[in-house]
Write a structure and sequence with these properties.
homodimer; mainly alpha; 2 strands; globular; DNA-binding
DNA sequence: ACATTTTCTTTGCTAAAGGCAAAAATAGTG
DNA sequence: CACTATTTTTGCCTTTAGCAAAGAAAATGT
């Protein structure tokens, strides 16, 4: 079959693999520096101040099981970063939201995580940054739709 | 500071994050379909037929600790996919190499994993594939050098 | 020659990440 | 009110991963 395709595919596979490993290390470092577990950091990244979330919402948006989420929230709750209250309308639901302490931390986290990436990207041109964006965006789309079709 | 940079940085952060998650799921599915643990699959991907490797070599090239590698190799050894013999020149070293069974499997694995990516990439243009390659390559370089500087 | 140090691997232990299945609690419905 | 469905939690298990100490072998100093 298409030789060029095969070549490109395997090169991209390799690169993606390396990128993955590096990003994982990067996340781990960042989380550790802020006294968080990686899973906690990932969870905090998606909760917005003022909003409240069910366990399920968080689980689906993080692509994890509800039980896993319960444990992650346990940790954040123990650190007084999130509140967990029973919904009044439907008491099966939990309503997870940031405490003041949590809001402060998340604000700092987002700021510093963006800075970290800004630091990485600052020495290259706007065009190259766009290339990165476009390339990763395309790839993300492909992998994502592939997953949906093959899950 | 540079508003454009910040915007691009945070968009790229988000995308990379999603890509990472999807690729992880992809690897997991693929490994499972072939009766392997993800770590085992990752290890097999880097050993070439006919060559032999020390535990340390594998550990550094996978960016894992030697002890972790010992365990991964234990698994592969139990499945009779790799041989583990003491080096004659320096008996401290282990020499890890693929068995016949391992070679057959790795061959199939590489073939099918490339096909999987070929499948994902086949419907887009050669130019778009190049865009993906270039974008991810740039990003990988940045994250990688950042890691070296900040580790 | 032998004691010490260094190097490579393994083992024991621990933590974190994650899922499955059953239980608990609540809501909705015949 | 009995039954079913939904949401979360709990118990238990697996996988991934590292650290520190032990073991084994080589290199080196005296």
């Amino acid at each position: 079959m298409d030789m060029k395709l095969k070549q490109q595919a395997s090169a991209i596979t390799e690169l993606t693999f390396d990128l993955l490993r590096c990003c994982k290390a990067k996340e781990k470092m960042f989380a550790k520096d802020h006294g968080l577990k990686v899973a906690e950091f990932r969870c905090l990244r998606i909760v917005e101040a003022g909003k409240s979330y069910s366990v399920q919402e968080l689980a689906t948006s993080m692509h994890l099981s509800p039980s896993r989420l319960t444990r992650i929230i346990d940790g954040l709750f123990a650190e007084k970063l999130v509140d967990r209250v029973q919904s009044i309308e439907d008491r099966r639901f939990a309503k997870i939201s940031l405490t003041n302490k949590g809001q402060t931390l998340v604000g700092k986290l987002k700021e510093e995580y963006a800075d970290l990436h800004g630091e990485m990207l600052k020495d290259i041109s706007v065009e190259d940054r766009d290339k990165i964006y476009n390339g990763i965006s395309l790839m993300q789309g492909l992998v994502s739709t592939w997953l949906v079709r093959n899950a």
